[in-house]
Amino acid sequence: MGMKAIHFGGGNIGRGFVAEFLHTAGYEVVFIDVMDNIINELQNTKSYQVTEVSEAGETTKTITNYRAINSKTHEQDVVEEISTADIVTCAVGPNILKFIAPVIAKGIDIRSTPKPLAVIACENAIGATDTLRGHIESHTDSERLETMGERAQYANSAIDRIVPAQAPNSGLNVRIEKFYEWVVEKGPFGNVGHPNIPAIHWVDHLEPYIERKLFTVNTSHATAAYYGRYAGKKTIAEAMHDSYIRGVVRDVLKETASLIIDKHEIEAQEQQEYVETIIARISNPYLEDSVERVGRAPVRKLGRKERFIGPAAQLAERGMKYDSLLGSVEMALRFQNVKDDAESVELATILKENAPADATVQLTGLERTHPLFSAVVKVVDQVQSEAKETGQPRI
Ligand SMILES: NC(=O)c1ccc[n+]([C@@H]2O[C@H](COP(=O)([O-])OP(=O)(O)OC[C@H]3O[C@@H](n4cnc5c(N)ncnc54)[C@H](O)[C@@H]3O)[C@@H](O)[C@H]2O)c1
Ligand SMILES: O=P(O)(O)OC[C@@H](O)[C@@H](O)[C@H](O)[C@H](O)CO
């Protein structure tokens, strides 16, 4: 029998990254989603196209050999597919992991195949597979946990490829950048060996890769998005074309680079080259990536291990400079009441209803005794005061 991958999330990165590389590696991909339109389209087509766009032109690949199941309406089918699959991946967003865990737990529990299932969450978050595993374990009978390792193996990953929101008439087709990086821990697969997926770079220690990615790509991306929206820009490329915003992004990246070089002993020259690649990538005018997509979910992005507070906290602990990152935090706090973004409404409510120190704890999870805490409270206070004066943040 051929190899089978179950992939949760038939969205942009699911179709344009994970499924592409699983397909190339020879897997049949079974997409699981809760959106009727995506499932219907996947069920009613035999192929879709992934087009890489860059100044060098366009290259198109055709993805075939997939099926799709709606987990909202056909949960038992999903459970059975998982029980005979080789790998489960997901790209649903870090806040959705808890919702997909119960069905994965049921599928794992009834497995009787000799090889354990490989589980790899492909989200922009540190330790996303660990988080998913925690939710799966909390939906597994305690007496079955001891033998879980015979049925499933869990590996964290870092994924990098910019996939903007797609044009409304593009159907399943995805336009993406050429660059990609998929790094996964190999240790958890032990003697069984890791899955054979040529696109994956297997490593012993993931932390340097995921922190470098999140604190360079996503920190700069989100900085451009929040400053860009504040300045009335529509896309990230447009924001990066603005010399002031570009300068701010560079300042922020100097701070995160100093952490990455110090903590992970990456050579300064290597990090500088990485930074230049990322600046070129996020400035790519062919991607048309909106500031709203990149700024989406500001409460998640202000979290303790996330792209701003994560590096700023570690810099503060080391007595190193972090004030440009605080500027990004300030702009993120102004991403309030944005259309179709529930967290931007939640952010506005938290800022409205709480004193600065309480709002800081609620949003960032920073400990009140942390060396970064008072600096963030000041920024929160500043944004709250503007809203009190004008009835809204300065947008
Ligand atoms: N787009 C990018 O450039 C990019 C790059 C790297 C990583 N990521 C990460 O990948 C993840 C997905 O991002 P995206 O841009 O593809 O988002 P997206 O919104 O395009 O796709 C998410 C998909 O998950 C589906 N979904 C939601 N709840 C579900 C559930 N309970 N079960 C199954 N499916 C469910 C949605 O219907 C949607 O199709 C995020 O963690 C993001 O940070 C995105
Ligand atoms: O997906 P988010 O919301 O965590 O972040 C938005 C973008 O920065 C992100 O999707 C990037 O495009 C991606 O991480 C590039 O690899």
From TrEMBL:
The keyword Oxidoreductase applies. Its EC number is 1.1.1.17. It is an enzyme of class 1 (oxidoreductase). Coiled coil: none annotated. NCBIfam families: PRK02318.1-3, PRK02318.2-5. Monomer. This is Mannitol-1-phosphate 5-dehydrogenase.
